[in-house]
Amino acid sequence: MSPRIYTEQEIEKIRVSALLVGDTLAEVAKMISPGVKTLELDRMAEDFIRAKGGIPACKGYEGFPYTLCISVNQVVVHGFPSEYELKEGDIVSVDCVIEKDGFFGDSAYTFMVGQVDDSVRQLLEDTKASLYKGIEQARAGNRTGDIGNAVQSYVEEKGYGVVRELCGHGVGAHMHEKPDVLNYGRRGSGCLLKKGMVIAIEPMITLGKRNIGVAKDGWGIFTLDGKPAAHFEHSLTITEHGNEILSSFEKVENILKDK
Ligand code: MF3
Ligand code: CO
């Protein structure tokens, strides 16, 4: 099956869901501080999303039990919210998917808890920058491999690792659709991008080696060397002349700069 091409009306609905994810992540940003249990973030997010008429799409997806994926330090993605209390120096990836009016938005941000080591702070900055390097390549006529190559070359040159076992994806009428959007690869390889496609790009970048394991809960993905990893994600659509990001970090970053 080839990737779905969305109408403008459908893309508007995906945008509404994606922006609600941004609003949810901004509420999470307000709460992030030492002593907060990650389960408290999850409960707040579920209440917030439902109050806005959205459905927390991860909850129940292939048995995933929570609204948010909350991944601390060496956990890369798909961490379970828990009784763990955030502490100064932690980093925490918060990934959220919302369905509203039949359409899905997907976005993730990695937060710092208080003061964080310089090398880890730099990892976050560079991972976010790699997301935008990938987004720059997301245009009609390019292929998914152009996105992956841009992400990979940007971060590997800085000595980081790219997690290869997971990837970005099409998103819209379902949480995960064609095409796969790898965070590595060759220019000119992969799926041809066309106007009206909607994809989520989500680099997962490690400070140390790229090798990962799966937690006993069957979900959490962690670095085998125990070093931290970062994860940022946007949903975006391919347009006539490039792309348009449908999710937004604007509210999140407004909260963070006033903290
Ligand atoms: N939000 C993740 C993604 O970016 C998917 C989470 S898996 C789930 O694709 F089971 F938690 F939904
Ligand atoms: Co995603």
Explained architecture:
The model has no long low-confidence stretch (mean pLDDT 98). This protein is an alpha+beta fold and 259 residues long. Strand 4 (91-100) and strand 5 (103-112) form a beta hairpin. Helix 1 packs antiparallel against helix 2 and helix 1 (8-31) runs parallel beside helix 5. It starts with 7 loop residues before the first helix and ends with a helix. 30% of the residues lie in helices and 25% in strands. The radius of gyration is 17 Å and the shape is globular. The strands form four sheets. It has a five-stranded antiparallel β-sheet. The chain contains five helices and 15 strands. The chain has helices spanning 8-31, 38-51, 118-136, 144-156, 250-257; strands at residues 55-56, 68-72, 75-77, 91-100, 103-112, 161-162, 168-170, 177-181, 198-201, 204-206, 212-214, 221-223, 229-231, 234-238, 243-245. The protein binds 2-amino-4-trifluoromethylsulfanyl-butyric acid and cobalt (II) ion. Cobalt (II) ion binds next to loops.
Summarize the structure.
The model has no long low-confidence stretch (mean pLDDT 98). The chain is α+β, with helices and mostly antiparallel strands.
